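Internal QA ticket QA-208
Title: Verify multi-chain structure generation after dependency bump
Assignee: T.L.

Test input:
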Amino acid sequence: DVKVTQSSRYLVKRTGEKVFLECVQDMDHENMFWYRQDPGLGLRLIYFSYDVKMKEKGDIPEGYSVSREKKERFSLILESASTNQTSMYLCASSLGGQTNEKLFFGSGTQLSVL
Amino acid sequence: QKEVEQDPGPLSVPEGAIVSLNCTYSNSAFQYFMWYRQYSRKGPELLMYTYSSGNKEDGRFTAQVDKSSKYISLFIRDSQPSDSATYLCAMSASGNTGKLIFGQGTTLQVKP
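Actual output:
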């Protein structure tokens, strides 16, 4: 089974802090994604990456950046955390090609920014 | 107007009931339709994946797509307490980007 591991289950940070959310997948998937999930809004795509050192903006990239130095690892960075970034963050990966829509998700990181 | 609309529920049914979960969408370019299931404190997992219109069946689950009405459904037969979860519809236009548009999710509770 594909395993997507997010480094923290719960995280509490203060406004203005720099926050790193880490994600690792173990199935040699080409593509990795960061979504956030908010009540009433569903999942929204923040950033995604089709290859090492490549990144593309999703629908809500403002206030976020990403890093993909290795194929298996995709990091989400909040340069200066704000309270409106309190959310559940979900990392996902997919194999590539025509199976790109079949995403495998991690268990999520619940981030609270105080 | 959101691209994908999904009734958030919650929906509560007795064990053994037939459950119907639905999404409507506005973008006629969507061709790939998925249902993800998300248990509490877990990430979503892919449940059903369909392309274009028609039906797809997998055990107790049936996914239907009606592109003319821009409407998709997930039916669960003989529902079980273990089906209690949030069900998210998702869709995309290209099929090869992984950029999905999700509905808000419907929370389902199946009571024993």
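Spot checks passed. The first strand of chain A starts at residue 4 and ends at 6.
Status: verified.
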